Amino acid sequence: MTAPLDTTTLLPETGADTGPETHPADAARPALADETAPAELPPRKRRPKRDIDGWVLLDKPVGMTSTQAVGAVKWLFSAKKAGHAGTLDPLASGCLPIALGEATKTVPFVMEGRKVYRFTVRWGVETDTDDSEGKAVAQSEVRPAREAILAILDAFRGEIEQVPPAYSALKINGERAYDLARDGVQVELAARTVVIHSLDLVEMPDADHAVFETECGKGTYVRSLARDMGRRLGTHGHISALRRTRVGTFPEEELVPLATLRAWSEERDDAAPMHVLRPVSIGLDTLPCLRVSPADATRLAHGQPIILRGRDAPILEGPVAITAGGRLIALGEAEAGEIYPKRIFHAGK
């Protein structure tokens, strides 16, 4: 959250831009045997559920679905409630923020943050899933030179039109596109406008592969980006490796591998590794923060709006995080000098 505003002392506004929306990375693809590999699932041991509130910044391993990762973390912490902020394919590794308890109320705001990916494109082969887990549907002997790759990158920066992969979670007449594709139905998805904030060639380890880094907006499919770059270069391409290095304000260097969480839990005789739990409020770092009096906090907690009074009252519009006594108490919507409560935080994290 940004520096708080105080309705009791009428501090000036310190709101921050929440930034463009970003897409949860490439969720849907054909089911694989290793998605349910017993080695990747938490042990079948009963634990009493607890009220655990906060964020776990997980470094998801390759070969595990996002749902399995959430289940593993939820089990390790014996949490009653858990969710994640942006799906990662089993093929992908990296930043998977997992919300526990009250933190699940802030997931939509984390989803609004920009996401950064590093990915490898395999030239010469296009697959039905646009990644290495699909079947080859087109091949080419052409391998693009560095100069040719650099020459097309501007065409994929900024606002672009992009057709999502057939194997995606988008719905067609109420059914998921990947379900239709698996059943052999020809899937045709309309192009959508997405935003690519940056796209850079990082390295070319050999003629068949190129490594890129991109910061992209909501709705962007990295798999489609690889496919379309291949076609633009007069060849074909698909994702052979994908890692998400950042989600919003959650950087790669703060991620904790699942294996490390499990090891800490085992060392402490099944005690949850609470020292890695981040506060609920970090999911709201991009929102303006408003500090209110105890009386206003009580009104908001009962679902009643408050009025920002006084000549120097802050001018706020849109979502705002609200604190009282140093505790996060609510998410609200500011409109015409009033704050309307939307979500109440009972844990005060």
Automatic annotation (TrEMBL):
UniProt domain Pseudouridine synthase II N-terminal: residue ranges: 74-222
Domain tRNA pseudouridylate synthase B C-terminal residues, every copy: 223-281
Pfam family, one: TruB_N
Active site: D89 (nucleophile)
Region entry Disordered, spans: 1-48
Catalytic activity: uridine(55) in tRNA = pseudouridine(55) in tRNA
Biased composition, class Polar residues, residue ranges: 1-11
EC number: 5.4.99.25
Keywords annotated in UniProt: Isomerase, tRNA processing
Domain tRNA pseudouridine synthase II TruB subfamily 1 C-terminal, first and last residues per copy: 288-344
Gene3D superfamilies: Pseudouridine synthase
A single MF term (Gene Ontology): tRNA pseudouridine(55) synthase activity
Database matches in InterPro entries: PsdUridine_synth_cat_dom_sf (IPR020103), PsdUridine_synth_N (IPR002501), tRNA_psdUridine_synth_TruB (IPR014780), tRNA_sdUridine_synth_fam1_C (IPR015240), TruB_C (IPR032819)
Free-text function comment from the UniProt entry: Responsible for synthesis of pseudouridine from uracil-55 in the psi GC loop of transfer RNAs.
Family: Belongs to the pseudouridine synthase TruB family. Type 1 subfamily.
Protein name: tRNA pseudouridine synthase B
The species this protein was found in: Ancylobacter radicis
